[in-house]
Amino acid sequence: MEIDRAQSVTIVVATLLVVAIACCAAVLDGTRGKVKMIPDKATTAKGEKGFSDTLSLVDGKFTSAFFLSKGFKPAPYNGEKEENEAEFEVEQTSATNGLINWLGEIRGKKLMGRLTWKKADGTSLSYDFEGKTD
Question: CATH topology for 5-133?
Answer without folding.
Answer: Lipocalin (2.40.128)
